[in-house]
Amino acid sequence: MSSHPPNYEHLDDQMIKLEVNLDNIPGEWLGYVMDLLFEAGANDVFYTPIYMKKNRPGILLQLLCSVEKVNIMKEILFKETTTLGVRYYPLTVHRLERVFQKVETEWGPVTVKEGLLDGKVVQRAPEYEDCKYLAQLHDIPLKKIYEQVWKEIDR
What we know:
The chain is of the alpha+beta class. The chain contains four helices and seven strands, in the order βαββαββββαα. The strands form two sheets. It has a four-stranded antiparallel beta sheet with strand order 2-3-1-4, covered by helices on one side. A three-stranded antiparallel beta sheet has the order 5-6-7. Strand 5 (97-105) and strand 6 form a beta hairpin. Keywords: Nickel.
């Protein structure tokens, strides 16, 4: 494992991917379970529609977490979903270096996260919460905030 601080480009080889196939689970439970998993320290949680045995529709729940969080994630999955088994395996994640800059819009500042590969910017994304706050504060469409942020970045 790299000795760099988490904001530097590095390989994180202490990650685990957990997954379960779910059927006969109400949709409301899925959002609740996602919230619990994130609150317990999951790095990512996502759902994919699937077809299971006998062509039954189901949901594939997948999550990423650190090795230290596996037991709490399994406990949540067994207690809060309809699954009878959890698959999990080690995973390495290549994380880009992340830097943040402030971009001024006519409605206020927005933080932009940049991902660097070998020291060069290869990804940029305005922080959603900043954009949402300004859109609500000024009663304007969220997309207008994003549009102005992108214009400012491209200057």
